[in-house]
Design goal:
The protein is mostly helical and 70 residues long. The chain has one domain. Helices cover 69% and strands 0% of the residues. The chain has helices at 6-11, 16-57.
């Protein structure tokens, strides 16, 4: 095995913080790339449902006797 202990793996002769930061940033970016389309899809579906609800509840002005005020 290349490293003798867990401390040696984390420290990596002084390069550990840079290496582990690179791994963390890489994983964070990959997770963001995977999560962003799911969030966008959820927001789009919620927006579309709201528009459909508003369209279904809107009064019809064509031939509606209540719309003319008489």
């Amino acid at each position: 095995m290349y490293f003798d202990s867990l401390q040696a793996v984390l420290y990596m002769d002084g390069h550990g913080p840079y290496v582990w930061a690179a791994y963390i940033i890489t994983v964070a970016v990959i997770l963001l790339i995977l999560w962003a389309p799911v969030g966008r899809k959820t927001r789009f579906i919620q927006q579309l449902q709201g528009e459909l609800r508003r369209a279904a509840g809107a009064p019809n002005n064509k031939g509606d006797s209540n719309a003319s005020g008489s």
